[in-house]
């Protein structure tokens, strides 16, 4: 898994999937202070920090180091949840159609790092959560699964945020379970998106 922050979605995967349908082989964080690292440690999952500052700000080199670390652990799926940054092409070619990202909106609506606030500011009556395949376009790859969430007329940012996170904690483990069990064919989703 790739993380940068709290790692509540890592927590959901540890609870629902790890050691069952799949094993979380390792956690990479772009941030040495991420609470996600504590969650990994507590669950006995190996982790490593790949901060840009340790790679002279060279994202491609950092990403290649991360790809090597993950490949050494024979990962079959890379899951980004709260990972800050756009993965470079060199990383993505190492895991073709095997990198998922979780995003707190109904993509293609509201890409970027302020998706929840942007949806509220736009006054939409519905938003949601998306799991998509990662390509080099920010939050732009083929959609794998979505959960729709109605926005109440008197919605507060905190209330919506909590409902979105709760939906994420259901959707991401369900997708990873389906991929692990062969019920979801990521190659097929990538192929259809290309045609
Ligand atoms: C999630 O809302 C995810 O959609 C976004 O970053 C957040 C990560 O939360 N990309 P957490 O670190 O898993 O708690």
Walk me through the structure.
By secondary structure, the protein is α/β, with parallel strands linked by helices. Helices cover 39% and strands 16% of the residues. It has seven helices and seven strands; from the N terminus they run E-H-E-H-E-H-E-H-E-H-E-E-H-H. It has a four-stranded mixed beta sheet with strand order 4-5-6-7. Strands 1-2-3 form a three-stranded parallel beta sheet, with helices on one face. Strand 4, helix 4 and strand 5 (99-103) form a beta-alpha-beta unit. Helix 1 packs across helix 6 (157-181). The longest helix has 25 residues, at 157-181. 35% of the residues are buried. The structure holds 5-O-phosphono-beta-D-ribofuranosylamine. 5-O-phosphono-beta-D-ribofuranosylamine binds at residues 3, 5-9, 81-82, 102-104, 168.
Quick summary:
With 195 residues, the protein is α/β, with parallel strands linked by helices.
Notable traits:
195 residues, alpha/beta, three-stranded parallel β-sheet, globular, binds 5-O-phosphono-beta-D-ribofuranosylamine
List the helices and strands and how they pair.
Elements: E1 2-3, H1 8-16, E2 27-29, H2 35-42, E3 47-49, H3 59-72, E4 78-80, H4 89-92, E5 99-103, H5 115-122, E6 126-133, E7 143-150, H6 157-181, H7 186-194
Parallel strand pairs: 1-2, 2-3, 4-5
Antiparallel strand pairs: 5-6, 6-7
The structure holds 5-O-phosphono-beta-D-ribofuranosylamine.
Residues 3, 5-9, 81-82, 102-104, 168 line the site of 5-O-phosphono-beta-D-ribofuranosylamine.
């Amino acid at each position: 898994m790739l993380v940068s922050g709290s790692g509540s979605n890592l927590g959901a995967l540890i609870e629902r999937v790890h050691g069952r349908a799949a094993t979380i082989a390792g956690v990479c964080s772009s941030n040495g202070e991420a609470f996600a690292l504590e969650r990994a440690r507590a669950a006995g999952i190996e982790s490593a920090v790949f901060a840009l500052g340790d790679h002279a700000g060279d994202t491609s080199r950092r990403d290649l180091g991360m790809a090597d670390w993950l490949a050494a652990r024979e990962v079959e799926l890379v899951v980004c949840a709260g990972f800050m940054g756009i993965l470079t092409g060199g990383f993505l070619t190492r895991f073709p159609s095997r990198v998922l990202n979780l995003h707190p909106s109904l993509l293609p609506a509201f890409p970027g790092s302020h998706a929840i606030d942007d949806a509220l500011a736009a006054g939409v009556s519905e938003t949601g959560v998306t799991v998509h395949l990662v390509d080099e376009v920010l939050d732009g790859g083929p959609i794998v699964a979505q959960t729709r969430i109605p926005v109440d007329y008197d919605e507060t940012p905190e209330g919506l945020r909590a409902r979105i996170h709760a939906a994420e904690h259901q959707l991401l483990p369900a997708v990873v379970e389906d991929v692990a069990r062969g019920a979801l064919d990521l190659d097929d989703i990538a192929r259809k998106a290309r045609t």
